[in-house]
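Incident log, structure service

09:12 report received: a user says their structure output differs between two submissions of the same chain.
09:20 pulled the input from the user's history:
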Amino acid sequence: MPDIQQQNASSERLSRLRVYLRQRPVTLALLTGLAVLFFLFVTGLSRLYRDQQKSLGNRWFERGMADLKARRYDAAVRDFRGALLYSRDNYSYQLNLAEALLGMKHTGEASAYFLNLWDRQPEDGLVNLELARIAAQKGQIQNAVRYYHDAVYAVWPSQEEIKRREARLELIDLLLRSNAKAQAQAELIALAENVTGDPSHEQLLGDLFVRAGDYEHALTEYGLSLKADPHNVKALAGEGYAAYELGQYRAAQHYLHEAVKRDPGDTQSAERLQITEMVLRMDPFRRNISVGERNRLVAEAFATAGQRLEKCAVPDGDGGNTAGVPSELSSEWASLKPQITQRGLQREPAAAERAMDMVFRIERQTSSNCGAPTGPDLALLRISKLHEGNTF
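09:34 re-ran on a clean worker, output below:
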């Protein structure tokens, strides 16, 4: 009897086990399904939350961009800070916040943002440009030059060539203001290689080469500008000035005359044209003039230099020697004076060379000691630069 009961109990347990094993996959499937549904629900909620955060951030950002465009910098700063509450590491939000802070003259805080952005994307053109401007404002010229160079060769999202050219132009302006003319000339030559042939760009390059003291390249750039636009008054004036500084007075006369004719209010070009015409008229070394004309010019130049010497000479306390120029120069001029007449030069042609040598020495000395010359004295000083070492 006990054996039968044991057998029945075992059979019952086996039956329950079979039922359990049949039900387990269903239960596991149900639990798995519930877990998947829960995961999808949580994921959906998370996505919905992120979308909402993104939407709110974008809304603040758009408001900030509108305020930034309208130069309402304080409002823009609040807007961008609001946007960053919903996306703290958003690069664009931080970049525009830094721009708004610059607009408010909060340079230190803006600089901190730009440096952080530079660490993240050192090839960003705008970030490098703003860091260059901040460094230049602080007088950190070396850092400014480095950041400007990075901006020139950096990545720009649009109008890449225009942005690079503008960055290089700012760099050149900084170098010129810092009197780093050799560096500025190198940058200008690099810039000139990429100019598209726009006459206004060529004229601007000419102006910058003039500021850098590179009149040869300035002459080239102004010439290219005038080739495309022969009536560009600024290019005419610039070409005339570059030729004037290079001692190419025939060319200078032509271009300066055209510039003044087209713009009578250009007093600088008018003054340079006047000196240019004096140089051409007063130069006794020019070719194809008669001996008599040469002697007349030498005598007039000698008299002009003597007047300059007299005005420059300042008597000392005893009324004897002069303080403005060496006294021996005055004595030398006085001793030579009787010979420097047209008749005297005709009798002794070699005196003309001595006379012009003295004229040039007087004009150079007085230019150093008594201020910049004007009129005929300036013309003679320029003639001296043309003919130093020349003989008749």
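09:41 both user submissions now match this output. Likely a transient worker issue. Closing.
09:42 reviewer note: The two ends are 155 Å apart (CA to CA). Residues 316-322 have pLDDT under 50 and may be disordered.
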